[in-house]
Design goal:
The protein is built from nine helices and 15 strands. Helix 5 runs parallel beside helix 6.
Length: 258
């Protein structure tokens, strides 16, 4: 089995203080993708640069304390790519790609767009620039798993209050249509939904009110894969027993040799 875990940390140092490292070391993951690291290389040290025998590879934002993604792997990748070739968003540390030969894993963090009209416009620029890159990945001839915080709930089943959020970033018709294109036109598969069609399966909860306690959430974290490896997904789980950030870890096991 190939076990892949993804989690938006909302700060790797903050998550570490809440027990993230000890939890991650016990997961027997082959690849651990993290987003919103909010750190630089000098901040990590040995304690956070390697976790549970996994080697860390990071794409940091130029701005300190902002964004940043990482990918920890048991095997050393044959090749690594930092950024997807867009100057605006590569400066924000949103993409790291690891080629393991028979398969490729990506850790990525899509802009939120909820803080201002300016950031929403940036989110739409990202979507426009990233779709051709996804098409290139789909056509590369390898199996690909893209992990990360997509910051879009695809369907009504993917958030609690869908009626009241249709005009909010994360559930806008244009965002949802973009994700539909990723699946229906480009040909990627929403692996979690392939395995688990149940409602009320969320990965993010607002810190406001009683969202976590009442399970008023959104499914914003995905593993999106090419059809071949998606068909080999056997188990999917969202870890809810402890909180390391405002997101929950998503783990999927694939029936291929790691």
């Amino acid at each position: 089995m190939l076990r892949i875990v993804t989690l938006n940390l909302n700060g790797i140092r903050s998550a570490a203080r809440k027990g993230f490292v000890e939890w991650a070391e016990a997961q027997n993951a082959d690849v651990l993708c993290v987003q919103e690291v909010k750190a630089q290389q000098a901040d990590l040290g040995d304690a956070l640069g390697r976790i549970g025998g996994l080697h860390g590879h990071f794409h940091f934002a130029e701005k300190k304390g902002y964004s940043g993604v990482g990918l920890f792997s048991r095997r050393r990748p044959k090749a690594l790519r930092y950024g997807f070739g867009n100057a605006e968003f590569d400066a924000e540390g949103r993409y790291v790609e690891a080629d393991f030969g028979r398969y490729t894993v990506v850790s990525m963090y899509l802009p939120s767009g909820s803080s201002s009209e300016e950031r929403l416009a940036a989110k739409f620029r990202f979507l426009e620039a990233f779709l051709p890159h996804l098409a290139e990945l789909r056509a590369c001839g390898r199996e690909v798993v893209i992990c990360g915080d997509i910051n879009i709930a695809h369907r009504e089943i993917d958030l609690t209050n869908w009626r009241s959020n249709q005009k909010n970033s994360g559930f806008l018709p244009e965002e949802r249509a973009w994700l539909t294109r990723v699946f229906d036109e480009v040909g990627f598969v929403d692996v979690f939904r392939r395995i688990d069609p149940r409602p009320e399966q969320y990965t993010w909860w607002s810190n406001r009110g009683q969202s976590w306690a009442k399970n008023v959430g959104w499914r914003l974290d995905y593993q999106i894969a090419t059809p071949g490896i998606a068909a080999r997904a056997r188990r999917a789980s969202i870890y809810l027993e402890a909180r390391f950030s405002d997101h929950a870890p998503l783990t999927i096991d694939y029936a291929i040799r790691a």
